[in-house]
Amino acid sequence: MHQPKPTKGNTKWFTRDRFGMFIHWGLYALPARHEWVKQREEIPDEQYAPYFKYFNPVRFDPGKWADLARDAGMKYMVITSKHHEGFCLWDSQQTDYKATNTPWEKDLLAEVVEAFRSRGLKVGFYYSLIDWHHPDFTVDRIHSQRNHPDRDSLNRGRDMSKYRDYMKNQVRELLSNYGKIDVIWYDFSYPGEDGKGRDDWDSEGLEALSRSLQPEIIINNRLDLPSSVDFHTPEQFQPREWLRVDGEPVVWETCQTFSGSWGYHRDEATWKSPGQLIRMLVNTVATGGNLLMNVGPTASGELDYRAVEALRVYRDWMAQHSEAIYGCTASAFTAPQDCRLTQNGDLLYVHVFAYPFRHLYLDEIGDRLAYAEFLHDGSEVAFSIGEDKSAQLQLPVVGPKTEVPVIKLYLKS
Ligand code: GLC
């Protein structure tokens, strides 16, 4: 099956582990209506200031988050160290706009990193290139002040070279002070008219700094610098086939939300069903990708009950089926009707999205099929091989009690 060209970073662990937790957390958890609230509602700094003044996550316990991630079968975590609002979760020496200057008074990132690393998960930092608070970040077409009546006066005196230094000094802190960091997830470039791209960020400098401080690190594709990319990041949609760039298959990770918002959104109700959650994970791995599933902690520092319930859907399914995810990728075989296939060498996994009456058919597999079993209980699945070399799997009328039943096929080498 597809073999993406090697990149500068080592993505072997990444494509083996397949499944991670995204965490979007910042001052935007207080207004609790999307992490872009400052931009969407064009909230000026003074009106946004109360969220800084009252930020105090009194029930912050990252061990609980890490336990839920580990139990859900997630193998890595990426947390927003700083999102577009500019607020820093760590004790950055570059700014006063940070968690240690809020009523919380402590570095939040250190505790999160320790909690997840101690549960065996790899650690990644999301770092926003965009900053709607920094005094040297120029107002542009997506800035929270983009419609200010006198934008020129706002931009007078702003110096993006100072902002580039600010970013480098912050990235140096993030990649020097928290041990081994496995992923840096920059977000995002919007080059062109009244936008910002690689030259505005000095993306080459950011890449060089990232790799010099963390030689094993992998970098996403949002620096607007193709030569820096280790993995691509389609978001909020399900690719139907292996993602290609310029015709070539690439390493890719889709990031998704349990609901319609990355940051905690109290009143947003489009929470995905258990079946959707499992099918999203399977669809992703069946097309050769990773899934980074997002949670948005509340202003109190907890994952709300809807996120906890969603993570437990993954826990219950992965407890019996994780071998059909870890180390797996797309298969060259044709999936049976209403099914998806993931493969790991001579092991082929049939993920049954719509449970059929009695039979499933796999074409072109006949002379390679040695044995078949349900993954949830290890019970044998009988099969016969047709003249045309297709395999007919014989299923019980009543399917297994699980969101997506999986049949494990042992192939002869
Ligand atoms: C988009 C959103 C941003 C979010 C990111 C996650 O860039 O604008 O808020 O952090 O997606 O992929």
Number of strands: 16
Beta content comes to 15-25%
In the sheet with the most strands, the strands line up as 5-4-3-2-1-9-8
End-to-end separation in angstroms reads: 16 Å
Order of helices and strands: HEHHHEHEHHEHHEEEEHEHEEEEEEE
Give the SSE layout.
Layout lengths: L11 H6 L1 E5 L13 H4 L4 H9 L8 H10 L4 E7 L25 H11 L3 E7 L22 H5 L4 H17 L6 E5 L10 H4 L1 H11 L4 E2 L24 E2 L2 E2 L3 E5 L16 H13 L3 E6 L9 H17 L17 E6 L2 E6 L6 E4 L6 E6 L7 E4 L5 E4 L11 E6 L2
Helix pairs in contact: 4-5, 7-9
This protein binds alpha-D-glucopyranose (GLC).
Briefly say what this structure is.
This protein is an alpha/beta fold and 413 residues long.
Task: Describe the structure in your own words.
- The protein has 413 residues and is an alpha/beta fold.
- The chain has helices at 12-17, 37-40, 45-53, 62-71, 108-118, 151-155, 160-176, 198-201, 203-213, 274-286, 305-321; strands at 19-23, 76-82, 122-128, 183-187, 218-219, 244-245, 248-249, 253-257, 290-295, 339-344, 347-352, 359-362, 369-374, 382-385, 391-394, 406-411.
- The protein has a seven-stranded parallel β-sheet with strand order 5-4-3-2-1-9-8. The protein has a four-stranded antiparallel β-sheet with strand order 10-11-16-13. The protein has a three-stranded antiparallel β-sheet with strand order 12-15-14, with no helix packed on it.
- The longest helix has 17 residues, at 160-176.
- The model has no long low-confidence stretch (mean pLDDT 97).
- The structure holds alpha-D-glucopyranose (GLC).
- The site of alpha-D-glucopyranose (GLC) has 8 residues, from loops.
